[in-house]
Amino acid sequence: LPWRFCGGNNLRTFCRLTHASFTTALSCCQDPVIITAEQSFHGRTLATVTATAQPKYHKGFTYGGEMVRGFRYTPYNDVDALKRLVEEINETPEEDAKAGRKRGLAAIMLEPLQGEGGIRPGTLEFFATARKLCDENGALLICDEVQVGMGRSGTLWGHQQLNIEPDVFTSAKALGGGVPIGAMMARGAAADVFGPGDHASTYGGNPLACAAGLAVAEYFSEHDVLSNVQERGQQLSAGLEKIATRYPSVLGEVRGWGLLKGVVIKEDAGCTAAELVGDAMKEGLLLVAAGPSVVRFVPPLIVNNEEIDEALVRFEKAIEKRVASTSSSP
Fold first, then answer.
1. CA–CA separation, 82 and 73 (whole Å)
2. What is the pTM of this model?
């Protein structure tokens, strides 16, 4: 089925797709439930903070100890846990059933690769299972492509790495090349959920953001960006793995797709990911932590061979100094 562009604005569009999921599910049940994954990150609106299954982001947003109702969480990449949760959701509690209510699965929302969750790629089996469960239950499979989409994975969209097709997916960040813009794409019945006036944004569709999005799309069309992402991603992985073998007490697994890579900091390394990011900054290298124990590399999609080599040199220098300072401490 063809994809339909359902609007663009400078807000995180998960607020829209969440609304779409609930609206679609209301046709079959009064109590629709959306499943998201533990350690996910989906945004900063009240609904998307709720969808973000990390308690640290919920602090200060609860009402009577609760977040927005209708969300349940499952371990990422755990097929059996996902199946069990869907079975549980489809069993309406006795009190609700007596009141004539019905609970059911509205959607499963997943990141093809968890960014804030530690640069953890989804598995083929997990996403195939999610697709099957959605099909069997008349629910939507929704992919959050805000971080991994627009070529960062080495394919245009992260879900293409997983051989599945979602019903809805979102895009932002690289969509505007730094200019704030977000979009939601939907296909099939999901594309017909919104009617005129159902959703609006003060800055939605503004000329500046849309011009930036168009310029990015044109650049992707006229330049072989994806090949560069794939080649530089392989170069970055190979370089990080070599550094990890030289500092096995500090660095562990190197993982990720394309130009979204993470390297695990071992528990007994004597430092956190955030501290190592600070060390790298002193060497003139900008990185970002992905949780307490993973250092995240997200270079520009147009980064060149020499710049990757220079980044690896600076990262190793930061580790070398950290190890030296730790060993010299009393």
1. 9
2. 0.89
